[in-house]
Amino acid sequence: MAGLILIAAIALFSLWMVFIYNRLVRLRNDVGSAWSQIDVQLKRRHDLIPNLVAAVKGYMDFERDTLERVVSARAAAAAAVGIHEKAVSEGRLTRAIDGLFMVMENYPVLKSSENVMHLQEELVSTENRIAFARQFYNDLVANLRTKLEVFPDTIIASLFSFRSAEYFSAGEEDMALPSAGLSMRRND
Amino acid sequence: MPLTFIDIERQKSWRISALFLLLTALYFVFAFVVVQLVVCFIPGFSAIHGSFLVVQDLKYLAVIGLSALSIASVHFLTSGLIAVRQVIEQTGAKDPDPEDGIHRQLMNIAEEIRIASGGRKRIRCMVIPTLSANALAVADLRGEAVIAITEGLLSRLTRPQIEAVMAHEAYHVLSGDCLETSLATSFFGMYASALDRLKSEIAEEPRAWPIAAIFWVLVKFATVVNMFISREREYRADAGAVRVTRNPLALAEALDIIGKRWSGTGLISDGLEMLCISGPRVSDHDESEGWWDDLMSTHPPIGKRIAVLLGMAHVSASILAKKETAKPAAQTDPAEPLYYALDPDNVWLGPFRVAELAAFPWFSPKTWMSTEAGGRAARASALGISDTLFGGRGQAEGHADMSCPSCRQPLAMVPYERTTIFQCAFCGGTLVENDKLQRVLARNEGDCSERIISLVRAVTADNQRSLAIRRLRQLDRRKEPPTLCPKCGRSMFRAFYSYAYLLEIDKCGICGVTWFDPDELEMLRCIIENRITPGTSVS
């Protein structure tokens, strides 16, 4: 009888372990796929910037500094490895692009160029996509971290050496929603 | 509280089963009444079966129950599967035009919202070509979901505001409550417009009566179902939108704009009310609170929704009033840049918009221009604006065969408020494709000038007089040579834009284009924007 109870207990325990393990794996994969979404959008941004710079360069001869800042920030961001380094350099790039958009407001002639307007819209959209993808990723990371730290999940996590994921944030100055305030407002 | 939209989507709603039961009950009662009438009024029936009441016979009840269940299942499945298509057909919604700047922006926003919600569900976005301001979401049992936004709303909102409206509608879709309302609409509400059509045909076709009676019952049922659609869902969707965009102020501003505009009464059928961001029907219940109003209305008072959102943004309501008063000044802002140009007599003229410059016969890529009075001058080609104007002339875009009906000069493709129109470089006449007409009219370039306003008053008064004379003399139309369509070369018909806006324009019935003689497009925009009717003054 005691043997039967023991076997039942072991079976229940292993079922429970499988359940927790699977849940952790699912969460880890969700975080991974959310990260790849950010990566896709960052890549898209890196591809768009040279086009925009080339399109506006002719009109903005006096703003060489602003343009160079964007170009060098892009180069640094493209070369960055690791989540934290990427977050910091991408934050810098976001601010450089915002600066460029602000300067562009002073050149009404740019607004008549459908090409520039198109590139600016694409870039604004990409900025928003990065912001949303990051928001979603960070939500999932928070979820994973909670699961890894609460009892009893933490036992399974340490047993199978699940590692926590890193938040995608570049520090306080970049925590505000980027670009929403600088997007192309037409009516006000 | 769910952490992500994925969790919300996983929650299934019991209300859909309730709707199915309601539908079955409805058909059961209907079949019951029919069978009872047959038993009572067809002689011989009761004699055979020995009873006047169907209820006493379980056999009848089983047959009625089974047939009600099967009819309800067919209705449920067909309506549920075609809900999206039905709404698209009824509203005339179209896919966004990728060539159009503002539509491309809408497509981008739809993609952003998809990413914000975890990217699980692709929601199609569409545009309803009307000047009214509203947005709606619809989903069906196949899993297809559409968010449609009217051209009028699209052209009045800023990017963050469109984002907020899209997030609101996306929340409806992802939380599943859109499916319930879509099904309810498809089961009952959809028949409102069909009933209207039938009513007009009934005089000629008396056999349509029974169908009209069924439709009438279904439409009345829509009112009952409305009672079960909670006003809370709009508050929840507003909150969901704020959680995605983190921008409550933008949604408050958007609702303010929607609340103050024509929200599509008469155009968007009453049956679709549940799907819209703001009810198109004008009803006292919508703007008041209390249990009876809660029961009768599907949307909470828009003022209260705005108040909640402003509370989240920690700002007072006066900020919306400030924005509203600041608008006219902002409208004169160079949404499109203005230029000064040096004419052949060496006199600086201006400022002009690009489209206006195109009307000067002497304007060429070599014309000296400046962006400000007395500013640095540059050749038009150096400023990069002439490419769009002259590129359209002749070879480019494959429109070399289109020429102005009065000057016989090739029409140039001109950018106009983020879309394109064809304009004669010499007389300023404009050709607009009919599917772009509503956008061109909706996108406001600024206040109309005094000259246009005076012209509008004179022309509409004149047109009203001549219309009255024509009617009294029973003449069909004025005899004047018709304008030939620039696209197909056939005669266009000259008619009023509508009897509310008495301005004559030329339309081609074959290729779906409208030709505006010089000033006519501005006049029409001015009439619509200021609602000028003969005898009224402009504020």
Walk me through what this model shows.
- The complex is a heterodimer of chains A (188) and B (539).
- Chain A has 188 residues and is mainly alpha-helical.
- Helix content of chain A is 75%, strand content 0%.
- Chain A is built from 6 helices and no strands.
- Chain A has helices at 2-57, 64-79, 83-104, 108-111, 114-149, 153-159.
- Chain B contains 21 helices and 13 strands.
- Chain B has helices at 5-10, 15-41, 45-49, 58-91, 101-116, 151-156, 159-175, 177-189, 191-202, 209-228, 232-245, 248-260, 291-296, 302-313, 318-331, 354-357, 380-383, 386-391, 434-442, 450-472, 520-530, and strands at residues 124-128, 135-139, 145-150, 339-342, 348-352, 368-370, 378-379, 411-416, 419-424, 430-433, 493-496, 504-508, 513-516.
- Chain B folds into 3 domains: 91-319, 2-Layer Sandwich (Zincin-like), CATH 3.30.2010.10; 332-391, Dna Ligase, domain 1; 394-539, no CATH class.
- Mean pLDDT of chain B is 76; it is low at 325-334 and 391-398.
- Chain B has 539 residues and is α+β, with helices and mostly antiparallel strands.
- Chain B has a 6-stranded antiparallel sheet. A 4-stranded antiparallel sheet of chain B has the order 5-4-6-7.
- Chains A and B meet through helix 1, helix 4 and helix 5 of A and helix 5, helix 7 and helix 15 of B.
